[in-house]
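Incident log, support desk, overnight shift.

02:14 A customer reports that sequence design results differ from what the structure should imply. Their input is reproduced verbatim below. On-call engineer (initials T.W.) acknowledged and began investigating.
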């Protein structure tokens, strides 16, 4: 797989385009990359690839059933509990992470998730590359590319420690009494 398909794609797609029916995103396995017209943090660049993800995930005893279409659409309109990208963006943008119910589930609450969805609709752009076994290229991409919003397998990135700290602080605040959504 050529990393240039993600770093310098021929086309970037907006939330409106991705969420339209039938929409351009294929229901196929692959790798997706996120670019932002405005960086979610002043210490990050805009207008370049900041995060990559794969779908489906390949685990020891099974492979998830998601595909590019379901995963990319979820990132645009889901919640922080089901999207590491949304969790990271919301924390960087200063949205308040909250525990939901009595369990460990955390989101930015109804209003925060709606605000994040609007921010992403305005500033997030995505591209993708179909790949039959995307888990076979994920490590290589994260190692070779500067992807400050990826945490997994990315300790070598200069932003990793700061992002880890920001997310940990948000989780800690969400665990404090009175933080239930």
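02:41 Re-run completed on a clean worker. Output:
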């Amino acid at each position: 797989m050529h990393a240039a398909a993600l770093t310098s794609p021929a086309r970037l797609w907006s939330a409106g385009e991705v969420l339209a029916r039938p929409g351009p995103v294929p229901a196929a396995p692959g790798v997706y990359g996120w670019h932002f017209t405005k960086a979610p943090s002043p210490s990050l660049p805009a207008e370049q690839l900041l995060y990559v993800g794969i779908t489906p995930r390949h685990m020891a005893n099974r492979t998830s059933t998601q595909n590019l279409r379901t995963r990319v659409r979820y990132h645009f309109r889901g919640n922080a509990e089901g999207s590491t990208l949304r969790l990271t963006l919301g924390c960087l943008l200063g949205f308040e992470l909250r525990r939901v119910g009595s369990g460990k589930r955390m989101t930015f609450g109804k209003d925060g998730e709606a605000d994040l969805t609007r921010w992403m609709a305005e500033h997030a752009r995505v591209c993708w590359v179909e790949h039959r076994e995307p888990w076979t290229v994920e490590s290589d991409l994260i190692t070779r590319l500067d992807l400050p919003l990826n945490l997994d397998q990315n300790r070598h990135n200069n932003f990793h420690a700061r992002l880890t700290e920001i997310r940990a602080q948000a989780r800690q605040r969400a665990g404090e009494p009175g933080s239930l959504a």
